[in-house]
Write a structure and sequence with these properties.
The strands form three sheets. The protein has a seven-stranded parallel β-sheet with strand order 2-5-1-6-7-8-9, sandwiched between helices. It has nine helices and eleven strands. The protein has one domain (2-28, 55-340): Peptidase S8/S53 domain (Rossmann fold), CATH 3.40.50.200. The protein is an alpha/beta fold. Helix 2 packs parallel to helix 6.
């Protein structure tokens, strides 16, 4: 599996050490494969200490961050054979958190799409037969206060915003995209959230609310919702704009799609903890990667896989819920349904009357 983590950067040695530790904890032999962290560089125009403008190269696998490591750890705990790709789009560990530059973000998603369609993205260890391997993009981040950034005006609600449209292109290319629902839910939203961007119907917006992505909220390991987890419906369904109208699309309204565990510590190292919808996003991406590794899941469309997870989620109530979505992700049930179903390769929605 190819899992692209769009975050604050990953350290290749840390990823390799994580794989070795998990193998050791499970009593499994640690293979001797070279654990490469592949990816794309970012080029930042910045100013050095003397005030001179310079271009800074941020290379994949070289800029570790606690947040990025948390996401990688949750993915590898479930899909240890995944090949991790690093896309250091966000500010680095020692820099102030902020949304990505819109042009840089759009360029990155386009580069990923080109690499996938051209066959350059494939399992690092697979035979070079030209076959494309499944690709998952993990986005455990969002824009907390879009109206405060001039470059993101209209991003929250406009289905035709140049960045929001990127999600449709990635889905059409057959790439799975997973987004965190966000931490602007009530009663305890992140303090950085915009005043008009918290609570039901207002806190899942832009990329994170797109009907062609898997949007993941957060619950504790006992299933209790986390108070900051963003609540639907998604804002892209509120209105149409210049030809794109999601107001009647249930997949745009019913955000989050589902929830996954968060707010837990690692069983072998209590200093490593997992918080917010970011951890839940990494967990769900790991589940999706593991399901994609099953032969029956390799060639299914992104929508088919999203429907598989929604349909087989552990019910949180009657139907869709603004906080829980379709319920809590259920790996065992989803895997059983995947193995018992005929192959699905089209983008058509799966019948709700039988196993997806």
């Amino acid at each position: 599996m190819n899992v692209i983590i769009v975050d604050r950067g990953l350290d290749q040695n840390t990823v390799a050490d994580t794989v070795a530790r998990m193998a050791r904890n499970r009593g499994l032999p640690n293979d001797h494969r070279e654990r490469k962290v592949l990816g794309w560089p970012r080029y930042d125009a910045t100013t050095d200490r003397s005030g001179q403008r310079i271009c800074r190269d941020i290379l994949p696998g070289t800029t570790g961050s606690d947040h990025g490591y948390m996401i990688a750890r949750n993915i590898l705990a479930i899909a240890p054979e995944a090949t991790i790709w690093d896309a250091p789009l966000l500010p680095l560990e020692d820099e102030q958190d902020a949304p990505p530059n819109p042009s840089t973000a759009s360029q990155l998603f386009q580069l990923i799409k080109w690499a996938f369609e051209g066959g350059e993205i494939r399992s690092w260890y697979a035979e070079p037969n030209g076959d494309r391997e499944p690709c998952i993009i993990v986005n455990a981040w969002g824009v907390l206060d879009p109206e405060s950034d001039r470059d993101l005006q209209g991003f929250a609600d406009d289905p035709d915003h140049l960045l929001v449209n990127d999600m449709l292109r990635l889905d059409t290319a057959g790439i799975d995209v997973v987004f965190a629902a966000g931490n602007c839910g009530e009663p305890c939203p992140d303090r950085r959230c915009g005043l008009q961007d918290t609570g039901p119907g207002r806190s899942i917006l832009g990329w994170n609310a797109h009907p062609k992505v898997l949007t993941v909220g957060a619950v504790r390991v006992d299933g209790l919702p986390v108070a900051l987890s963003a609540q639907g419906p998604g804002r892209l369904a509120a209105k149409g704009s210049r030809g794109t109208d999601y107001s009647n699309d249930p997949r745009a309204k019913q955000k989050p799609d589902l929830c996954a565990p968060s707010h837990f510590r690692e069983s072998d190292d209590a200093s490593e903890f997992n918080t917010g919808t970011s951890a839940a996003c990494g967990y769900a991406a790991g589940v999706l990667a593991a399901l994609r590794s099953v032969p029956a899941g390799k060639n299914r469309s992104p929508e088919a896989m999203r429907e598989l997870l929604r349909y087989n989620a552990r019910p949180g109530g009657s139907g869709w819920d603004p906080r829980l979505g379709s319920g809590v992700i259920n790996v065992e049930k989803a895997l059983a349904a995947l193995r018992s179903a005929p192959a699905v390769t089209s983008s058509a929605a799966i019948s709700r009357s039988g196993s997806p």
